[in-house]
Amino acid sequence: MKAVMEVIRRHKSFAVASHINPEGDALGSALGLASLLKRLGKTAVVATDGGIPEAFEFFPKVARVIGRLTPRLAPEVVMTVDVPVLARLGCMQELFERTKHTVVIDHHVSNQYFGKVNWVDPKAAAVGEMIYRLYRAFGLRPTRNEALCLYVSLVTDTGSFRYMSTTPEVHQIASDLIARGVSPLKVAQDLYECHAPRDLRFLGAVLQDLKTTSDGKVAWLEVPRARFQSFRPGPEIADELVNYPRAIRTAEVAFVLKEEFSDGKIRISFRSKGRVDVNRIAKQFGGGGHMAASGCTVPGTLSQARTKVLNAVRKAVASTR
Prior knowledge:
alpha/beta
């Protein structure tokens, strides 16, 4: 963190980049960091491929957000948040590569340390927790809008304070953010009570095909492209699918195979209840993340991906017995 603070003190213009299809932690920490930079007298924009998804338009406009790369965007420093791998920046990868001063702020154990300065804390529940610490290190407390950004970050990456990463410090930070004016009720409504009817119909159709191994230790869902085309669900419901097989009482590992696009690739999300390290499984397929939550992309068909992934998951579960 001290090295990050020194970079901030030395430079004037910044771009804060998050990953493709950003979720609550990526956007909350990016907006929170950009607003902090502005309060420190810097110029700062959030640069994320595609901009802010519709589901997160409730975020306060504490900083300008750029959704595509332009030649005029030439900050002295590019800082990434919640990005473990450079390629996850999408179109903003070019900006990162052409900028002399780069900073990586992340909490993924799989982070590849691709910045000139790397602040990676796998023990942090969310990058938003790290940005909160940065506020306090600079002697500042978040405003109400900044607190909202950081609170959404915490809620998102702790599963509403249900995951193993939920420490006493996380609750202390959440308490301070609520004291700054955040409404937990409003955040919960914005995050979890925002679905269109088609989203729930999609969920119902997908859950009909829930599968488990004979011992119930592994549960998974498969979503063919035709189902995405038929229902056209919002990304927020598709991204949360993996939590449903994980909720099965006997399941140690859950995963979802998604054929979202016609590019011959299957997107896979993994979740674990703590005994199995799914980051290791994802790394076998070129992905990564956290011990209890990871992802990867596998070329081929749904059936081909299922065979490969299920074999790897079964081996991982068996090794913990």
